[in-house]
Each structure stands twice: as C-alpha cells, then as structure tokens.
Design a protein that fits this description.
four-stranded mixed beta sheet; GMP Synthetase, Chain A, domain 3; Rossmann fold; 505 residues; alpha/beta; 37% helix; eleven-stranded mixed beta sheet
Length: 505
C-alpha cells in the first residue's frame, strides 16, 4: 500500500509531465521566447551594452552581435565578475561560482545566478517525476538514497560562494528526499575521495539503500568497497531493495557490464546531462532513446556541425534547423550570463518530436591523426558491442594514436582495464571485434585500415586499479572528474606507463 508521500509524489509527477509536454510540443516558439527574455533582461549589463543588445530582435541579429566564444573568450568579463563587480554578464552578481578544471586557463569560475540556480535542481526532480509516472515505482522514496558527490563546503570569493557544482547542488536536496538522503553532512564534507568512499561505505552498509546516484566510475569504487567490507558477492545481497541508479556526466553504456556483475541483477537507471554551465537535458522515458533537451530552462541553444568548427565563421543553427544523427557542438546563452558560449560538448539528435539528444563526446576529445576523426561515442559503441559479444567485462579505458611505432604501420592504441583475469586469446578476439565494429561505425577509419595507412588497433592491458591510481596522481580522483575516452595525442597514456601490464596485443 502506498504511503501518503508516494501518493502526493505521483500526483505531482502527473503535473510535471503535463507541464513538460506543453512546452516540448512548441519547441521553436519556446526557444524564441527564451532568447528574447535573456536579451531583454541583460540589455543594461556591460556585456549587453558592448554587444548592442538593444539592436537584437531576431536570431539573425543575435548571431550578428554575439560571437561564439569559449571560456578564454569571455574570461575578461568573468574576471570582472570574480573581482566582485556587478552587472557585467547578468544583472547584479552571481550567487555562486561553480569551480571546474580548465584546459588552458587552469581553474574556471562559472557563474550561477539567482535566475539560473533553480534550473540546476528542477531538471533532476523532473527526470525523477517522469520516471515515477512511467514506471509507477515509488518504493525507493521510503528507503535510503545516496548521492556520491563533491564536498558541499564552499569557499567565499569576494562575497560569492564558490565550490564544485555537485557540492553546491547538495545544499538544495528536495524536501521530499531530505530525510532519506545519505551520507551524513559530516561525511559528505570529506575532501579526500578514498577516505570519503571508505566512510560512506561504513555509514551505508547496514542501511536499506534503494536509489544510488553518481558518476559511474566512482560508484564502481563505492560498490567494490562495500563488497570488500561486507564479504558479500554482490551489491544486491547488501542492498536487496536497490532498484534505481541515477547518473550523469559520462555515458553509462561502457560501464553496464561491470555494474551488472557488481550488482548481480538488472536495475532501472535515469540519465542526467548536468554541467556547471546549466542543466541541459534528462532522460524522460525508459522506453525511448535520448535525453529531452531543456528548451524552457533559461538557456538558448545553438548548434554548429563539427566539420564547420574549423572554419573562421562556422554556420550557427537554432533548434528548428537541426537534423537527426548529425554531430553538433553545443553552444549556449544562459540566464547565468554566458553568451554564445562553446561548451566543448558534442551532441546528436535522436528525435525531433520531442527534441531528444545523446552526448557524443567532447569536441577536443577525438583522434584524427590521419583524418579519421574518431569520436568518443564511436569508441564506446565499438568496444561495448565487442565486450557484450565476448562476455568480457571492461572496467575503464582510453584510446590514443601511436603515430611513430618502431616498426610497421601506425595504429590506435586502446588502454583497457578489465574486471578479473583475461587471457591473451580473449584479448585477441576482443581486439579484432572492436576493430571491425569501429570500421563499421566510422568509414574514414575503415578506409585508412583497408588502405594500409593504419593497421588494426592494439590493446594495452592496464593493471587492476590502474586508472584510479592514474587519476589520483593527477589530483582528479572522484567527484565530477572524468577520464577522457580518447585524445589526439599521447599525453595521458605516456603518464600511465607504470600502470600497464607487460604484454600488449
């Protein structure tokens, strides 16, 4: 029998889904309203005055006045905001800075405003409501829930609270989940990730855990610690009521096999697409592929085809101009004061009614040493299919080009950590299947291998916990840190030499 809480949440879920359907059926009109509202509100800011916001009334005007920039391009404005100045990118001052790791500028400070903060929370709540209405599963609301996230301890930077996004969001746990949520505040504040996982495991091991959230590789670390402490074989034995996994930030598909092995059964999952810059999309259905892009959340979206990015003036597209299964770089303008901002993420639309996307990777994370332009989603898909067919469990991996081998043709080098022992014969089969899969997915790669410009890929076996140890040496263990799936250079794998096994195939 349902509790009062479950009944009320089901009523709220119907309301949320109905409201979502209303704007998702009018996507173009919704985005036009967002664009005009953003421009109107920011007209008197320094950025608005510098970019003639008073002259912008159409999308063409918007493109003319607001160039596409990455963080480096707007850093002069951000620096003024960090100094405590008002009305620079958005009226007033931000209420938070989300601190992230930059590539060339070191630490980034992404503003979160009074207007944008509610949408960081709204997206995750709405995703849960869609799940509840579709599955009728509300039992997890009466059990314990854990979110593995960054520390909620925030610094003060010129009067603005500053920290990791997940730590900021921890201050906004919805009321209907607050009593059920773990770990304790004190444990959540532990900065050292290994110590935190140890303490979280000790706190939760005896609880009735029903829903768990976090970035997949770090949840795997938590599961392994639980199994080690309990002496049990699977997470299902520890948490019999565990039925829902919530995640975001990385593709779950490559981790599915290791999750199933650790959990001991299949469970439901909900995917989010959160970022410090905004909450962009969420999984609104267990039946349909893709994430519903949030067109009504104070973000105006633009899209640039990946191949256009090399041009001095790449063509920018609004939501009404996008096509299915085309790789786009995601550009945003937001109610946090980011304008024509290049997120660096690449997405593809898998549905145009409603508009649903999948995240295909990072624009700068690719291999194109020979013109193949292999991207993250392609290597993930190729390896997952091969692993599923061979029943080999892949724990983690990254790919790099080997351009100048001592002998023979160059190739793509796949550094893979496996769950349990694996034989050379198994690696040989996996290698061949993965290579064939990648040739099917990427015609450029196929042509290069067939034309003997590249030889088939090679696998380097990484020692147990090798990737975890590597991330630790880089100061990126846990939290929101993610291992790049592939790179166009060998900087990562060269730092991982001490973590590989002695044989390669």
């Amino acid at each position: 029998m349902s509790s009062i809480k479950e009944t009320l949440v089901k009523i709220y879920a119907k309301y949320v889904v109905k409201k979502t359907e209303k704007w998702s059926k009018k996507p173009v009109e919704t985005q036009e309203k967002v664009m005009k509202k953003l421009i109107s509100k920011a007209k008197k800011t320094k950025f608005g005055k510098d970019h003639n916001f008073d002259k912008i009334s159409t999308y063409r005007d918007f493109i003319k006045e607001i160039p596409v920039r990455d963080y480096e391009g707007i850093k002069t404005y951000i620096d003024k905001v960090v100094q405590g100045k008002k009305n620079i990118l958005w009226p007033g001052k931000p209420i938070y800075f989300a601190k992230t790791s930059g590539t060339t500028s070191g630490e980034k400070h992404i503003p979160i405003t009074k207007d944008s903060m509610p949408f960081h929370i709204k997206g995750s709540v709405e995703a849960t409501m869609h799940y509840i209405l579709e599955t009728n599963n509300t039992a997890f609301l009466n059990k314990k829930i854990i979110f593995l996230q960054g520390s909620p301890v925030l610094e003060n930077l010129n009067g603005i609270k500053t920290g990791r996004l997940s730590g900021i969001v921890a201050h906004y746990t919805p009321a209907f989940l607050r009593k059920n949520t773990m770990p304790s505040w004190k444990t959540n504040c532990i900065e050292d990730w290994e110590k935190k996982v140890e303490k979280v495991s000790q706190e939760t091991i005896k609880e009735e855990m029903a829903a768990i959230g976090g970035i997949p590789p770090w949840v795997v670390m938590y599961f392994e610690k639980l199994i080690s402490l309990s002496g049990k074989q699977t997470i299902s034995e520890i948490f019999p009521d565990f039925s829902l996994f919530v995640y975001g930030g990385v593709n779950f598909a490559p981790y599915k096999s290791v999750f199933k092995k650790l959990i001991g059964k299949n469970i439901d999952s909900i995917e989010y697409y959160p970022a410090s810059e905004g909450f962009f999309a969420y999984q609104d259905s267990q039946r349909n592929e893709g994430l519903l892009i949030q067109l009504n959340s104070g973000i105006f979206y633009e899209f640039i085809e990946v191949l256009e990015m090399s041009k001095s003036n790449p063509k920018r597209l609004s939501i009404k101009e996008v096509k299915l299964n085309q790789n786009y770089v995601l550009i945003i303008s937001t109610n946090a004061g980011l304008w024509g901002y290049n997120t660096g993420d690449t997405v593809a639309f898998v549905s145009l009614s409603p508009y649903r996307i999948i995240v295909t990777g990072r624009y700068k994370h690719f291999i194109s040493a020979f013109g193949e332009h292999v991207i993250g989603s392609e290597v993930e898909k190729a390896l997952k299919k091969a692993a599923d067919e061979t029943k080999i469990v892949v724990k983690e991996f990254t790919v790099a080009p080997f351009i100048n081998p001592e002998k023979g043709l160059p190739f793509h080098e796949w550094w893979i950590e496996f769950e349990g022992k694996i034989s050379l014969a198994e690696i040989k089969v996996l290698s061949k299947k993965t290579d064939n899969n990648l040739k099917e997915i990427n015609s450029y790669y196929s042509d290069l291998v067939k034309g003997k410009v590249l030889k088939p890929l090679e696998i380097v076996v990484v020692k147990e916990n090798g990737f975890k140890n590597y991330m630790e040496t880089q100061g990126k263990l846990g939290g929101q840190n993610k291992l790049p799936r592939l790179s166009n250079d060998r900087l990562i794998v060269e730092k991982m030499v001490s973590f590989k096994k002695i044989y390669r195939l």
